[in-house]
Amino acid sequence: MKISTSTRPVFRVSRWVAAVSLLSGLAWAADFPQRVESAKRSAAQGLGKAEIPLLKRRPGPGMSAVAGVLARKFSQSAAPITTRGRSKTQTHRNRVRIAGDGWALQVYGDGTKARYRNSAYLDRYASHARPVGQRLSESRLEALGRQFIREHLQDAVVLGANEALVPFFTEFQIGGGGPTKAGAPMIEEQVVANTVVFSRAVNGTDVVGPGSKIAITFANDEKAVGFDFDWPAYEPAGKTQRVVPLPEIQKRLQELGSAKTDSPGVKVERFECGYFDAGLTRRDSDTLIQAGCFVHTSARRIVDQAAYSQDPSSGHILAAFVDAIPAGDPVEPDKRWRQAAKLLGIAPTVREVRPPERKRYPIPKP
Amino acid sequence: MRLARQFRLTIPFAAATFLLATAGSLAVARFGTECQEDYQNSWQDGLDYVWERCSAFNDELDDTDTKVYYYNLVGAKSWWESANDQLGMETVNLLYACTHGGGWSTKSVWAMWDQNQFAESPNMRLGDESYGLSIFSTYSCETMKFNDGKMWTRMGPIMRGGLRYATGSHDKVYDGITTDETGEDYADNLQDGDTIKYAWKDGNSDWATSQDITVMATGSNKSNCESRRDGMKWQNYTSYGRLRDGQIGWYCYWYWNNL
Question: Is A358 in contact with B254 (Cβ distance < 8 A)?
């Protein structure tokens, strides 16, 4: 059942905004200051602009062309990011994969999205794991990431006029474990990979969602071992979109979001507004890049009151949702974006097969 | 004459042996998928993108392997637990499932469609019946939680049956527009020959959604565990022998976290 917010007391909106602000400040130590500021602005003002110029994506040169360029670029590299030696190329419906000895390069669709991994190097280097407290710092990762992009991805990651590369967050691959003996302690956790993620701002407005993201992964020796980018070139679409104020965005979130943010046990984990780009493989290629808020929520539901009463860390089910809420008016049509389609009253494109109930038939023996 | 006869007998035998060995390593594997998008009387929040995630996983992986079943979680508790798992999960090599989850002090739980029903890890033991499940992949929150030091308490009962690998989340994995292709991407990565750890990690990441990804394996000791955790692929997992009960001396995991 959808709850209309039109008659809801204003104090609920205020409480919600305060809760989002508090969470943004506390929960995300990995976020760069720019992301923290953006989250605060989103919680207080939404996009913080009355209107934005709509953008359109310039189609890329194609996955085969970009794969060829990247493969040639790294073909002589003695560094872990390399395409040296023998390799095999496979072309799938929507991606090209070039794989060599322990490494793989994949380029998708029109060539604006790619992924490279040298997992063999990372695995070999795992013996140089270090305690979590000694992981590469945020500032060091930002510097290393910017340097790598400047030196190696300048052709693929192009910044247009009035665009900025914005450090977004850091992520780490961490290993642990322990003896299975009852009561045995876990071993100290160790870091083996350090990733820095960048996003983009256009005319000071952040791009939220998987589009406009670059991630560079470094081993502990500070050598890059992998990268991802989903980075189309944007250009003005020649028209502007009015941005709805925060209370209207919040109303849309209540109506279109997966969890009601004012119901018990629900937390807004992230609330980030800007241009929404769903990423290459999820974009409706005919639509424009428009205003939206990217919202992470979680819901902790108590399902076993007795277990919960005995131990507050038990008795629950945890749910997590990420919703993209349109923040423009009028909303531009986008069949792949369910919330946008719903606001416009059009049927979204959904490709799914619903499973049946289990049948009780005899299973063949192995 | 004797030599010629021996030659005639030996060559076909050797060829047959080679073919059998090759067939073993390239064998088409069996997988099953169990997913739930809505719940009886809305006892849990709906997960609007589950059918897309799961059907895309099926579409991709059944290009190379055999989809044995695709079911929802109506009345599924007993099929997940030891009562009937020999007729469910144990009939496939890999299980992919999407539903809500939870990590309690003494157990991991997965929500079923039926109101107030969840599969509970102490009632689960996988890998020792029928074909024997090898890889247990659940897109569910918190079931592979470790930060309270009780991961083995929760997951041990499942792994002790000889299950080779588990993939999941130590905290949150999100349902939404940007994660509806995570099943397809996981299947792609498995088919490409990525190690299971990176197939799961890369399949579930998009650098915008704050996914908390975890994988785990078991070993006789630390180095054995890490070798199994880091080396297993969809193409080679059978070359890692099953470890059961007292053979398991160590558990090990990777996770990826925003820090």
Answer: no
